[in-house]
Write the structure tokens for this entry.
Amino acid sequence: MSKKFMARLDALRDTWGKPIYLSSAYRCPEHNNNVSSTGKKGPHTTGKAVDILIYGGHAHALLGFIIDFDFQGLGQHQKGKHADRFIHIDDLGGKTRPWVWSY
């Protein structure tokens, strides 16, 4: 994981004031290719992306903090079973990358 990204994630957690549970962080290219449509070069292979397990009102509240921290990528999966819902954040940047999306 990128030290700079992890420092920002720690700062987000400290500001949030609650634990942040991750369902995914760094993935090796082979594993990412098996579990994601982004293939061997997806966001999680950079060490600058995580998926946070969260849903409902807590997800809504955390989004405000995430926006304040100016993470460059924000994806949300908030449908289906509660245990499968998450918010993705990353610091990949780039002009062609979407800033906000849903799964």
Notes: The mean pLDDT is 94. The chain has one domain: 3-102. The first strand starts at residue 22 and ends at 24.
